[in-house]
Amino acid sequence: MEILRTPDSRFIGLADYPFEPHYLQCDEVRIHYLNEGTSDSETVLLIHGEPSWSYLYRKMIPIIADAGHRVVVPDLVGFGKSDKPVNQEDYTYQKHVDWMTALVQVLDLKNITLFCQDWGGLIGLRIAAENEDRFKRIVAANTFLPTGEYKTPEAFIRWQKFSQNTPMFKVGKIIASGCVAEMSAEVRDAYDAPFPSEEYKTGARIFPMLVPTSPSDPASEPNRKAWDVLKQWDKPFLTAFSDSDPITAGGDGYFQKLIPGTRGQSHTTIKGAGHFLQEEKGPELARLVVNFINNNSD
Fold first, then answer.
1. Cβ atoms within 10 A of the Cβ of 51, count?
2. SS3 category, 179
3. Which residue numbers are catalytic?
4. DSSP readout, 255-274?
5. What pLDDT, on the 0 to 100 scale, is given for residue 246?
6. I want to staple 36 with a disulfide (CB 3.0 to 4.6 A). Which of 71, 85, 168, 181 is the partner?
7. What is the mean pLDDT of residues 219-242?
């Protein structure tokens, strides 16, 4: 496996990202993660999606940690400070699940409150369903768990085509376009930091093509099995979708309809935010997570 590793110099002086890096080796790839707060307390696992990295959670981490919780925030393989395989064939849905499962198991995370957005849900919900005993609560935000049995939204089809055909995959600009408020150049540059050149972006470019869009997709059957578990999931499950995301709109109602653990929870719609609601409404989401834990404690 040919691997690229973003130079540390690319991450010097990033705005509001003072966190100490941590790494673990999983077979051929090195995975980066943040580990903030108290290690013997409740664990909150924040998983990002496409094409962001742990920087997306910088506004949430301090608030959750200050509330007395341990906060673990990995960079998916191909993103952030994690290694970046060069060839598209090195990325599959299953490998992403396996890489993040390895992180959960190596760190021996337990009593986890999962917060997942975008691909963070496609990966995180699979891990939770396959490792039920490690997870205590789930917050799903602007995400879904597709099995390929429903019509693919036109907006997502356009996104797939763009990811494969655009000569320059400008990550910071893409994330900015998924926000309601204008993004500063400084923040856009921080989202671009993991990718010194186009060859570092293989994982980001291939991600849209790994989403199951037909029932026969290799990931569809494992996702159906995950749904079998989630349809019996009676642990606390909260939805917090934004009001301005054309990709995942309506997904919160789907979760609420099918997952028993959603009943009686204070589901909310985050106002004035696009797809990357952590970027725009991070403190609000962090307080929501803290309250969710407090309201659903043993």
1. 28
2. coil
3. 118, 245, 275
4. HHHH-GGGTT---EEETT--
5. 85
6. 71
7. 98
What is the C-alpha R_g of the chain?
18
Per-residue CA distances from 129 to 85, 230, 298 (Å):
27, 7, 21
pTM passes above 0.70:
yes
The domain that holds 37 is classified in CATH as: 3.40.50.1820
pLDDT of 151 over the 90 cut: no
Q: Look at the chain and report how many structural domains it folds into.
A: 1
- Evaluate whether 70 touches 44 at the Cβ level (below 8 Å): yes
Cα 162 to Cα 194: distance, rounded to the nearest angstrom? 20
Contacts of 102 (CB under 8 A, 6+ apart): 24, 26, 31
pLDDT score of 2 more than 80? yes
Going 76 to 77 to 81 to 86, the CA torsion angle's sign is negative
- The rounded distance, in Å, linking the Cα atoms of 129 and 134 is 10
- pLDDT-derived band at 154 (thresholds 50, 70, 90) equals confident
Q: Which residues form the domain of 201?
A: 3-295
pLDDT at 242: 97
- Which structure tokens are listed for 218? 């290799």
N- to C-terminal Cα separation, the chain: 45
